[in-house]
Amino acid sequence: MNRLNILTFPDPRLRKKALAITNFDSALEKKAKNMLFTMYEDKGIGLAATQVDIHERLIVIDLSEDRSEPIFIVNPSYKVLDDTPVISKEGCLSIPTFQQEVPRAKEIELSYQNLKGQAEKFVADGLMSYCIQHEVDHLDGKLLVDYASSLKRARIKEKLMKLKDGKNKN
Description:
Blueprint: H1 26-41, E1 46-48, E2 58-61, E3 71-91, E4 99-113, E5 119-125, H2 126-139, H3 150-169
Antiparallel strand pairs: 1-2, 2-3, 3-4, 4-5
């Protein structure tokens, strides 16, 4: 498997909306497995295809401690079952070192396709619900920093640009 490059804020490609997937083939499976490998390598719990410059509606998630329960989610959509706002403190592989409190729906019903193109659905709450909502935001071009104040957004952009400049000098 190949480790993919994760785009970091403020890269404009993170704002590009992902397109629906129509081809369920070995190339899709390879993309999904490379995304999963990348997510594990970077110690994440979820990764959207747009974060690795693939602008297709594909998400990988694994909330298990031993990394044994990956979920491959193609063309996701969800409906809110319980809109009681829960404040979720979230991080993001595309915005290293940044955390933001985000209001999320407590419970959702996720509809999606698996890697074979078969329709599936399940009810998610807690961390799974928040993770799905976070990753679907990515597919829609919305980022964690969008939930922050403009001042905080400017500070994190400046900090990440300095980090990136430091890496480019080495």
